[in-house]
Amino acid sequence: MKYDHIIIDEKDLKLLKTIITNSHKNKNRNYYSAIKRLRKELEFATIISRDAFPDDIVRVNSIVTVQMATNVIRSFQIVPPETSNVIQDKLSILSPIGLALVGCAIDDEISGQFSSTITKLKILKVLQN
């Protein structure tokens, strides 16, 4: 990781803590794995104000371009669950990919089980929205 740990702002931290608190309601194995990883990373996360937030870090509403292990390049926006829409490339922060990317930076590589197989993603670009 570029910053050795995830960096997050106060607003996103509050949202993620709510998600973790309510995670027991979701029995999906991939989701559970993403929550477990997120919980561990939040223990060491750096919390900063939105005004001082680096532009290269993924947060809620960021538009992220990633390269998959298959060399496919995809762009999508990480959004709150109520505004997610796969057709519009708006990926819920509650999705395993969304949870894995929040707090990570350009050039970070993330491995995880995002579908039926373990996948590796590399963050190529982050735009703040």
UniProtKB/TrEMBL annotation:
InterPro entries named among the record's database cross-references: GreA/GreB_C_sf, TF_GreA/GreB_CS, Tscrpt_elong_fac_GreA/B_C, Tscrpt_elong_fac_GreA/B_fam
Domain Transcription elongation factor GreA/GreB C-terminal: 54-126
PROSITE patterns named among the record's database cross-references: GREAB_2 (PS00830)
Protein's UniProt name: Transcription elongation factor GreA/GreB C-terminal domain-containing protein
Organism of provenance: Flavobacterium frigidimaris
